[in-house]
Amino acid sequence: MTPEGPQLEHTWTARPVRPITALYVLVVFLVFMAVAQFVVHSREAVVALAMAAFGAVVSLIPGITSRIEYKLSDGGLAKRRIQAKESREFEDLFLWDELSHLTPTKTGFKFYKNTVGSGPLRRFIDLHFLSGHSGEFHAEEGDRERILALIQKREIPTLPPG
């Protein structure tokens, strides 16, 4: 991939859903199936749970197999879904001067934009319920340290998860 200008700092791709998530979902369903079989003795419940498990795992496949491309630049962060059939334009997630803080997560980072709400309740609603004030971007293991270094270089506050 060639940089699209001198302002480009880092590009990476990441999956929206980690493959291990499918295994976690399957294990949860297997535990409930074991309870249904050995505690409740319901063959119908086992079959129903097996069908639900199949549907849940199959629904995760598009998120596991697709990838999102991220572009970190002097302006901020942009993303686009990688598709073989068409090339899409990058969509801005945030600009650096809009950010309040970033929080590292196991799969990437959560970002929070500055809010103009007058009280703590209004800020809470803006950040956690209304779209556009907060979000998440994914980064795989090899890219997280580089991204964190670029964030710290810009002196954006990072809060520990939790």
Strand element count: 7
Proportion of residues in helical segments = 25-40%
- As residue ranges, the low-confidence spans are none
Strand content: 25-35%
SSE series: EHHEEEEEHEH
Give the radius of gyration.
Answer: 20 Å
Outline, from the CA principal axes? globular
- List the total number of helices: 4
Would you tell me the structural class of the helices and strands?
alpha+beta
Oligomeric organization of the protein chains: single chain
Overall average residue pLDDT:
86
Cα(first) to Cα(last) distance is 35 Å
Profile the largest sheet. 4 strands, antiparallel
Strand order, main sheet: write it out: 1-2-3-4
Give me some keywords for this one.
single chain; 162 residues; 4 helices; alpha+beta; three-stranded antiparallel beta sheet
What is the topological layout?
Layout: E1 8-14, H1 20-38, H2 43-65, E2 67-73, E3 76-82, E4 91-95, E5 99-104, E6 108-113, H3 120-128, E7 134-138, H4 141-153
Antiparallel strand pairs: 1-2, 2-3, 3-4, 5-6, 6-7
